[in-house]
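2 proteins. here.
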Amino acid sequence: MEHGRARGWMIGWAIAQGAALWALHGLLPKGDAAVLWPLYAVVLAVPPTLQLLAAHRARRLLWVHAAALAMVFAAAAAYAGHASLGENRGRAAMALGVLLSCSWFVLLPFAEQRLASGTWARDYARLFATAWRHAFQLLLAGLFAGLFWALLFLLAGLFKVLGVSLFLDTFTSRPFVYMATPMAFSMGLSLYAAREEALAGFWRSMLQVLGWLLPLACLIAVLFLVALPVRGLAPLWKTGHATALMLGLMAWLVFLFNVAWSDGRAESQRFGPGLQRFCAAGLLAMPVYAALCAYALGLRVAQYGWSADRVWAALAVALMAVYAVGYAVAALRRGAPWMALARRVNVAAAWLAVALALLTCTPVLDPARIAVASQLARLQAQRVDVQAFDFRYLRWDAGRAGRAALEQLAQEQSHPQAAQIREQAQAAQQDTHRYARGRGTPVWTAETLRARLQPFPADAAPDAAWLEFLLTQLRGNQLSLTCTEAAPCPVLRIDLDGDGQAEQVLLSGYASQVFARDGAQWRTVGRLQGNLRHVQGARAGQWVEQGVQTQPPRWHDLVIGGERYSVRETD
């Protein structure tokens, strides 16, 4: 009877969640992210919370916890929505979803213990069991929902073969998708609750098996640390992702230790004294890895400043350092049970992880805001060349903070290269596509274009109207040039059609084109064909200086039925 009432509670919240998501979908095209994202955060987080804590549905404290969770998540989502812009909104939404999902999962066992015993983390064994039960329950519910949809599409596909599209149209309609998915997920949750005793034995057996990988992970950690003095740090730094590799190793050590150590009780220990000492040696290596990660990250920050990725890496290093130092201290302490101090380390690290995750959704630890401030400071201090500064990052990836920085740079006056900064910032503001300009591509102006062209004859300065036409083509991404000031592109003023009026021939490798005047306007009349490697790069000017002449074709074109045919001579 209890399972039946809990199932009704779960299905009721699934219906409410589906209806809310359906309603929110209609607001997506016109809604403000600072308003919509908090609503989505509440709708996605609160119903699963109430479903997983259905055993305490009669408690007033459950509603207090749910309301507190809703307010915190809504505030974080509101800031993230406000700080994002259309250009980076997809990535920002994904990052927010990951952060809030992880925070929700970490907080849920604490909330359940508070409801069950009145304390947040006093009973570590219960906390451990609850966390893994929730993980397995959510995994099973997700699998159930996935199989549910697979069977529905199988049904729709079979009838589609018979010419009946009713099922496919129904299953792909928005109301059905929004209502059926939460319902299937809640059914998966309730089925686990009804068979919890049998399923709990399965996930405990799975953890027993996985726990035996801990000695292998410790062996890897110790061996690599022993090899470092022999080989030196240089090969590690050359990888370019040394911090990520060492963080990955520490994350595996933390995960496998907790799987093997289980709830920390003496009767739960599966390793004998010898293996315990060996695993302790591996855990003692973790502070060294944390220090190496901090050192490597510090070198990158000192050299290149903060970026959003480096902010995330710093937060990960800080969290792993708590685990590393805590586990090392626990490994050095004598007494039974083994690693008893790890209980407090795990609890502290869990709360720290949630705090850091939520703080990134505030101005305090917003990675984009920190990265923008750091890069602007480096530019103002002349520690980075203007040409190397990534204006496109401010335009497309840094959200509202990047947009504000571009507006500031577009009005820059104090920097020695202020004019160039203003030009680059204004060009970035005008970009309409993320990949419209590559990093290091010049901002095309009449001056930069003239500096990259070499007229032939030398006294034949390019026509001003032609230069303006060329600028329009370049800015509209209709023309791509490889010209540089060191290797300018030759521009020939030559009469190619014998009409007494010179054309302009721009030699730029495979982008070589011919331009002709049409009255007062210029237009592109064709492209050069042939071995264009000779007219690319620094060699182009050398070939032109050896002499240029025109030569009429030996064979006239043939016109048959209004179609023109050219003769291409065989070798």
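next one coming up
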Amino acid sequence: MESQDRDQTFVIGIDIGTQGVKGAMFRSDGHCIAEYGESSQLLHPEPQAITEDPEFQYNSVLRVIKACLEQAKAQGINNAASKVAALAIDGQMAGIIGVGKDGKAITPYDSWLDTRCAPYLEKMRYEANDLILGKAGTAPSINHGPKKLWWKHEHPEVFANIVKFVQPGAYAAARLSGLSGEQGFIDRTYLHFSGFSDTAHGVWDKELCDLFNLPMEKLPNIVESTAIVGSVSKEAASICNLIQGTPIAAGCGDTVASFLSSGAVEEGISVDVAGTASVFACTHKQFAPDHKSKILGCCASVVPGLWYSYAYINGGGMNPEWFVKNFGDASGSLRFKELEDQIEHLEDSLTLPLFIPHMAGRVMPGRPDLRGSFAGMNWDHGKVHLFRAILEGVALEYGLYKEAAVALQPDLKINEIRVTGGGQKSVVWNTMKSGVLRAPVVRIKRNQGAPLGIAMVAAVASGLFKSFPEASKKWIATGDTVVCEPNRYEFYSKRLAAYRQLLDSMERFTETYPFKD
């Protein structure tokens, strides 16, 4: 490496995702120096329960940082740790961790995939659905609000000792810097999931807290994403090899970090995060609660004055993996690429089967009892047709999200859809999305995803850039564009109409026959 590269300033971005913890180290010009990741440990202690150990997540963060610094050293970058201007951590957005006075977890991470709080979701929806939607920006769902009430009512002895509720990114940042429980924080990008916030003004809402008798003092301190919330402690530095005192920015939610990594820092750019959770978002300049369809959440961007209207499929990106894992042949030769190659040769037909992608329940709007299903099958259909239906199910659900966004803001512009995550590699899938959404799907050349986006937060927080648009112009480059032929738009319009009717029918069915024990 040339000498001028060794003198660069670096930032580190870490993503605590559902599948694992990933991190990357970037030069100030956006070049990735090192990256490393390790898998999560999802726990299933009882039916409907999915949790993680917050300390395992934190120790994964320490190991990721250490690995990135070791890679930098192996490249001839001496004293890389002393050249790290800041680090930031993003994390899963809709789950919670209860921390005690010492800042350490006294509950497991109650994952966004954990549906035990469903009765309290129904309570919040019945008593204050529209009020919560209008103030927080998202209708009650499997997110912070019902989860906090679940801990309050189901485990009152634990709840009494909880000082603050935080998310994994904030927990890891607090542990890195040795913050107390009272210093627990949340940045504005998570507030729409809180159930108890006035998101437009970035504050907690007393009316909502009083309505459900939730003590406001248990809610974390609200900060900006770029706020420096602490610095690396002596203890953490000795483990991860960073320099004691390295600044730590508040960070943001993992989905918002993925939006950043796509360059969604101005109006007109929509985003498809084709990861574990299939997410579709539109970017605009006003706080816009979705009172019409109650599908979309309205989320603050890290960019001042910018908002995202978005919704997601709980585990939508896991569905193709589930199919290949469970329905591959004995030799295990069934692969995504083989199936996609065969899908390309299928003709458009309204007789193709449809698939409801909500295998773990519908999140937006909250329908936790809804489950995945195939419909319209006949004896001519095989694995390829079913796999195609799984991919198309995500695209069609996105179509409902777009319709909701346009109904909410008729002048909304969707110039292009930038796709990130593992699913961005699939031309077949991107073509379906382009056909349903009637817009080009643009890949991002960089493949670091959320770690890149959260590193941008560290870069702006440390002063390397004055703004996120400036950082985006320097760091983000678009790649190939996938466009569906306009003559196929009518086909996808009919498929969307059929999907909407099927989804409505399944929701009515689960009202009388819920898929749960």
